[in-house]
Design brief:
alpha+beta; DNA Binding (I), subunit A; 3-stranded antiparallel sheet; globular; DUF222; HNH nuclease domain-containing protein; HNH_nuc
């Protein structure tokens, strides 16, 4: 039926039906996720959790995969809410709100306080089904406040969190929370840089000056050389760009790829090169580095750099671990006569490096694609496309 065939109330009725159907599908998905988790099914594909499997095999964001896993766990403790979710009366977002009340710590606190969870379940469900969304937010928060009237224990680490969300253009959104003491430390560090950088005619807003100060704080820490090493190397800002783009005076949008995945213009890469070291890497037609600068012999740090440039992260199917989480693995083990060479190397995160030493296998194909096999010889694959059923 095309949209022109629907008028007035028919359109709104159709929307309501589809929302209810989505809720029912979300409920069924939550049940399947929980069943897979209890069966430790992700281990079959070499992954440690349903959240990582959902990210790698279903292309969900980290936030959505985590929410789905939390929801299915929460519904085990809230059967009335689960029933309403199954019926399409409650959304996954409402379940996620209620899930805050049944974390392991809060379940333990409720047991100590003698809370009848069935009553809480009934209240949450009634509000979720019959009242505006904002009312459920307030009811859940009121329960949490009553459960812990004295507030959290004065452990500063429990009051600290930081989430970094990368956008399509490589920009980074920062969201977090610090305890009072941690917040004071950050403010003192930032304010010193803000006050030291006040050129005449400065028209930046306060927010812009703080943003610049945060970047300067990172610059200072990286330049100081005292940060912990990443895989045996000092942390540094890295960008890969074609030589012709680096030499060409044009802007060259999308020409450079940075270490954490951001894509920048060639002009921006040239700006970074003014203040840093440039390493020459020549690639052959198959995408393998042929020349890693002036070294006569391939040293370990050069081998690692080559593997990072070629692989971009863990090559195990379904894994999204970045390069700095990875080891350089010998495809043919060194003890079995395998060379320490790029051709015999693969970048694997610690978990999957262990997996390939216990039966799993990765192979690089002639077209440069990586394939992963289970101990029984079957291949681990991700769906080519996620399409609705006919």
């Amino acid at each position: 039926m095309c949209s022109g065939d629907l008028v007035g109330g028919d359109v709104l009725d159709g929307v309501a039906v589809l929302v209810a159907e989505r809720n029912r599908i979300d409920a069924a998905l939550a049940r399947h996720v929980r069943a897979a988790e209890l069966a430790q099914a992700p281990e079959r594909d070499g992954l440690r959790s349903m959240a990582s499997w959902l990210r790698g095999h279903c292309r969900l964001s980290a936030a959505e995969a985590s929410r789905l896993v939390r929801n299915e766990r929460a519904l085990e403790h809230l059967p009335a809410l689960a029933e309403a979710h199954d019926a399409g009366l409650v959304s996954a977002e409402q379940v996620a709100l209620a899930a805050r009340a049944v974390t392991p710590e809060r379940l333990a606190a409720a047991a100590v306080a003698g809370v009848d969870l069935a009553v809480i379940d009934a209240v949450f469900t009634g509000v979720a089904v019959e009242r505006p969304h904002a009312d459920l937010v307030q009811v859940v928060q009121r329960y949490l406040d009553d459960l812990d009237p004295d507030g959290p224990e004065p452990d500063p680490t429990e009051g600290r969190s930081l989430a970094l969300a990368k956008h399509a253009d490589g920009a980074l959104s920062i969201r977090g929370q610090l305890d009072p003491v941690g917040g004071e430390k950050l403010q003192a560090a930032l304010e010193s840089l803000v006050q030291a950088d006040r050129p005449a005619g400065d028209e930046r807003t306060r927010a812009q000056r703080l943003g610049d100060a945060l970047v300067q704080l990172a610059d200072n820490a990286l330049a100081d050389g005292n940060l912990p090493t990443l895989r045996g190397h000092r942390p540094q800002v890295a960008v890969v760009v074609e030589l012709q783009d680096l030499a060409d005076p044009g802007t060259g949008p999308g020409a450079g790829r940075m270490g954490f995945g951001a894509v920048i213009s060639a002009a921006r890469a040239r700006w970074l090169a003014c203040d840093g070291a440039v390493s020459r890497v020549v690639f052959g037609p198959g995408g393998a580095p042929l020349d890693l600068g002036r070294e006569q012999r391939l040293a370990s740090r050069h081998l690692r750099r080559a593997a990072e440039l070629r692989d971009g992260g863990c090559v195990f199917t379904g894994c999204d671990a970045p390069t700095h989480w990875c080891d350089v693995h010998h495809l043919v083990h060194w003890i079995d006569g395998g060379d320490t060479s790029l051709e015999n190397s693969a970048l694997l995160c610690e978990r999957h490096h262990t997996k390939v030493h216990h039966g799993f296998r990765v192979e690089r194909q002639p077209d440069s694609r990586w394939r992963t096999y289970r101990p029984d010889g079957t291949e681990i694959t991700t769906p080519a496309a996620l399409v609705p059923a006919a």
